[in-house]
Structures are given as C-alpha cells and as structure tokens.
Amino acid sequence: MNGSVRVGDRMTEPKLAARFGISRTPVREALAMLASDGLIRREDYGFSPQPPSIPRVRNLYELRITLELQGITRAIEDPSVRHDRAALESERTRWRALAADPPAQEPQFVVTDEEFHLALLASSGNAELVTALESVNSRIRHVRMYDFMVNSRIETSIAEHLGILDAVIDEDLPTARTLLHRHIGESLSVVLDKVTRAVTAMSLAD
C-alpha cells in the first residue's frame, strides 16, 4: 500500500518464505488474503501488486454516496419513514466510547468505519440499500484503507460520525444529509491522494 513493491515485481511462495524465514503455509495464506482484498493479483509466475484504478474508485465512491444519502433522503421525502432511534442511540454510545479512547492508527479501522455506515443506513429501514452498500464496500475496502493511514483521520472520522448521529437522532435530517455527504467526500479526497501517490511509488520503486 505504500508503494515499496513495484508493479510487476514477482512475489512467490518460496521467495517470500525465504525472505521472512518462515514456512510456505503462512505465506500462502497471506497471499490469498491479499488477493482477496484486491491488493495483489495472480500472475503465471505467482503474484504481483494490483495498482488501484482511480476511475473505478471514483465511480464506486459515487455509487456509495448515492446509496448512503438515500437512507436519509427517503426519510426527508416520506414522513412515514422513521429511523430506528434505539439502534442509533446504541451506535452513538459505541462511538462516544471510541472518542474517549481512540484506537491506534492502522488501516484495518476501515472495518469499524464500515460498520458505522451500514448501521446508519440500516436504521432507515431499507435492507436492499444495505445489501447494495455491502457490495460496494467489498470492492473499495482495499483503497479505503488509505483513508486511515493519515494522521488524525481516525479521530476526525469518529467526531464526524458522532455529528451525523446527533443530527439524525435530533431529526435534523437536512443537516445530517449535508454532514454525511461532506464526510464521504473528504474520505474520497484523502483516498485519491494516497492512491495516486502509491501508484506513482509502485512505478518508481527500485
């Protein structure tokens, strides 16, 4: 993810096992996990880094924004649609605890972040929107990790999540929608910057 492995570099089980002084079994498992996350791709000779596609990232983020905002928009347009207040209160308690004791800065925070966005969307009552968002998340998770490799992004995300939750719970849905849109847009800006840098580094790595 930091670009230290060049695009086209050959990664094989024997080579990596020798490098780290371990057996081939954990190497095989690690390569399978990286391939599943979309970080590497299988080649005839083994594996090589998978450069992220910036146009594809943009398109998937556009779809993500559409899905997530719809959870709030449908409640604005139809007064009979009400968010699950108990679920949101529970989520707010969880994120207040994270604000009091923020986790370490590391890419896997993306999973915790996804849980928030899925819970928020689920609280609007449309399970099909949630299923669609889960599909999008699985395709952008490997690039969204970049969002949490930047200093203070975890703390910033926690604060923004709480602001969104407060607005929805207070039934100030237009404000909640604006905050959510801005939150996802800022994430996209960070991700695109980091992905662009990583792709350049992959091309130039020694």
TrEMBL record:
**Span of domain HTH gntR-type:** 1-52
Q: Which InterPro entries match?
A: GntR_C (IPR011711), TF_FadR/GntR_C (IPR008920), Tscrpt_reg_HTH_GntR (IPR000524), WH-like_DNA-bd_sf (IPR036388), WH_DNA-bd_sf (IPR036390)
**Keyword presence, Zinc-finger:** no
User: What is the name of this protein?
Assistant: Putative GntR family transcriptional regulator
Superkingdom of origin organism? Bacteria
Encoding gene per record: ydfH_3
Molecular function (GO) terms for this protein are: DNA binding; DNA-binding transcription factor activity
* Cross-referenced Gene3D superfamilies: GntR ligand-binding domain-like, Winged helix-like DNA-binding domain superfamily/Winged helix DNA-binding domain
Do the record's keywords include Transmembrane?
A: no
One family from Pfam that matches here is GntR
Query: PANTHER family in the record, alphabetically?
Result: GNTR FAMILY REGULATORY PROTEIN (PTHR43537:SF45), TRANSCRIPTIONAL REGULATOR, GNTR FAMILY (PTHR43537)
Q: Which UniProt keywords apply?
A: DNA-binding, Transcription, Transcription regulation
Organism of origin:
Rhodococcus coprophilus
